[in-house]
């Protein structure tokens, strides 16, 4: 059999994994949650969680991948036959997220095209976004373009596809986001937004702050979806795993903070300090921001730069989802990369269509008030992902034992946070994951609000 292709080195791995981690979650979800849950307090708790909890799970996943050199299902199976189902759950999560993530990626492309064509004012009008996503054909066309772009990268392989794209996109994304953040902070009234974002506010702090930060951390670090197992399997034995994970965390959290600096001050400056403008949820990026941009100088350029960086972020995340699925098909069915990619691309397109139509002609199809796209999001992020993560912790603790993972990390370097890893995996992670699962279910069924 052909030997498994690998990233060229640490930098390629870190940028590709950071490319997966940095996505829509960092750019619109993180700033909005931070603003809602106590600003600096949320940030502090988030950073502590990333450094402890996120670190431990990411180490477990990447070392599992590197140790076995296999995609999620095979990785679990090699260590214990009975537990390949955990890998299967992770792969299913990735398989189900990709289609609807691509629908949103398609919206981003549409907005980018809008700024290229100079439709700055039209995109800022009330009802533009709702009217657009309700259309039956155009959003699907953009979604197809988005998925096909991912497929083109994946087909080129790990080194020439994923790694190359990440090495180009990620530095550009960092620079563009710093440019927009500087612009936003220096707007009249922008500093008020910075204060709101960064200064701790105890009145907004509650137990829910921790739960919200936990859920966000999982999503943002692309955990429990098989992605980090897959990317870990392309990582060289001699490269420093612990340091790489640290760099991914830094990159992911850094971009989330910069995104807060881009969005919150701009919204503050535009709305005269009205915090409620921040609570628009998904609408924040597609409805509020175009209005903000339309009222600023250089609106077309800023809008264009902003949606370009969002597109890069979304593309590298979607690429990682697709790779996690393609690698499973290649390993399990012994398909070649081309065949697996073409089939996964077609499936993602077909499965994405209902999520897109659910905003328009199929909007009548709701469960618990959720449209099709939100149902997919709920099923994957609120149910399957925490279940998968919980099973992973149990697997590491009881079936394989943490020592196996520790040995794997130590193959390439000393393991500085070894004790932390053991304590988190054994005791803290399972409890916290159950907390996320219960609260997200209760909030969806309307028993509490997150
Ligand atoms: N981590 C990505 C983000 O922050 C989201 C993502 C989820 C990416 C699942 C891949 C898989 O937006």
* Number of β-strand runs: 0
Provide a count of the helices. Answer: 19
Any idea of the CATH class?
Answer: Mainly Alpha
Q: What portion of residues belong to β-strands?
A: under 5%
Assigned CATH architecture: Orthogonal Bundle
The N- to C-terminal Cα distance equals 49 Å
Q: Which small-molecule species are bound to the chains here?
A: phenylalanine
Classify the fold: give the CATH topology: Hydantoin permease
Main β sheet profile: none
**General form:** globular
Number of domains: 1
Which homologous superfamily in CATH is the superfamily? Hydantoin permease
For this structure, the quaternary state is single chain
- Coarse structural class: mainly alpha
- pLDDT under 50 segments (min length 5)? none
What order do the helices and strands follow?
HHHHHHHHHHHHHHHHHHH
What portion of residues is helical?
over 70%
How large is the radius of gyration? 21 Å
Report the mean per-residue pLDDT as an integer.
90
In brief:
With 450 residues, this protein is an all-alpha fold.
Question: Could you walk me through the main structural features you see in this protein, from its secondary elements to its overall organization?
Answer:
This protein has helices at residues 10-21, 24-36, 40-68, 72-79, 84-116, 120-123, 128-133, 138-155, 157-185, 190-198, 207-220, 227-232, 241-271, 283-294, 299-333, 337-357, 372-400, 402-410, 418-444. It has 450 residues and is mostly helical. The protein has a single domain, classed as Hydantoin permease (Orthogonal Bundle), CATH 1.10.4160.10. The N and C termini lie far apart (49 Å). Phenylalanine is lined by residues 20-21, 23-26, 97, 219-220, 222, 225, 227, 317, 320-321.
